[in-house]
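Model: Ready when you are.
Researcher: Fold this.
Model:
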Amino acid sequence: MATRQEFSDFLGEVELRAYKQALFAVQDEHIALDIVQDSMTKLVEKYAQKPLAELPPLFQRILQNTIRDFYRRQKSRSLWVTLFSSFLPDSDEKETGYTDIPDSLPVAQDFSNENNPGTAAERSQTLEIISKALETLSPRQREAFLLRYWEEMDISETAKIMNCSEGSVKAHCSRATHTLAALLEGKGVK
């Protein structure tokens, strides 16, 4: 069983990565923060008795399920808004949804070569290009890619979290890497 301090340390370690995963998925900063907070709360409430080694895959599964729940709620709300909008008088207002893409994502300023502003600026630009490229992937490809290469999970762990076969994980990752490679090469990133 993880101690309170180990739980706190674990949540501190995964917080930023989980936020960026949620932000890539929903493309809204406030909703992404809510998703991460809900996921962390569910982990603490339901799995406080689990050993520390079991927390990373459990948290990833909870995070991905919370993101899916968000999309399910949005789909249901959209249906009702569409149905009831036919009873409203015409207006100039349009439904916007959650498609606002932030101009830039927060980039960690933990550069090893702090004295060289050129290197820091180049890294920051590269990270922004990669973030924009990740947004173009389908949700399943992005999920597989982030779990495998960002969270460094193996194929079986990723398959369990995504609730699919290992072959599907491999296919999603392959498509994602090919798409990202083409997009990044087009932007001059190698």
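Researcher: Now this one.
Model:
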Amino acid sequence: MSRDRGPRLKKIRRLRALPGLVTPEKFFKFIKNKKEKKKEPFRKRNKEYRVRLEEKQKLRFNYGLTERQLVRYMHIAGKSKGSTGLVLLQLLEMRLDNIVFRLNIASTIPGARQLVNHRHILVNGHIVDIPSYRCKPRDIITTKNHERFFKKITILKSKESKHLSIKKDYKVKNFQGQVKKIIDRSGVLFKIKESLVVEYYSRQI
């Protein structure tokens, strides 16, 4: 499967915070050291398109998707009941690589994808090496080598992550992450206007 190998910090400079792409420490260090650049004026008639495009790019780069993958998710969300934008975010948030990231087993989504590809992640006791695997409520997420990941396991932004839970056994240094329910809008980590993404694709597709 193809993946984006471009410079991550250039994307951060253009689109601002993407929590799934780089660690917070690296992001704030980059923002502190970078020089402010004057914004180039652009035609008013292109402003709306540019805003929609940037929101779409935020979504794509944060979750590490190709354009084809994002279009496929848009088709699925469009055919589902409920708000298309909310369903789209739920589909992306419930991907296995994102759940591994939210459990803090990996510090970034690309790092989580690598762990999944290298067969370190188990779902309900079975190895799953497909990053796009869609997790469901009551799924149990564990790793092959518990001691390696035990110390840093904690739910990112636990107050906003009501859809996940963790059980730790300190005696044997074991843990279990569980998906309790489908994530709601308040649980999404980064700021995104999903309605603009839907508008972008409604004009493109």
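Researcher: Key takeaway?
Model: The longest helix spans residues 47-63.
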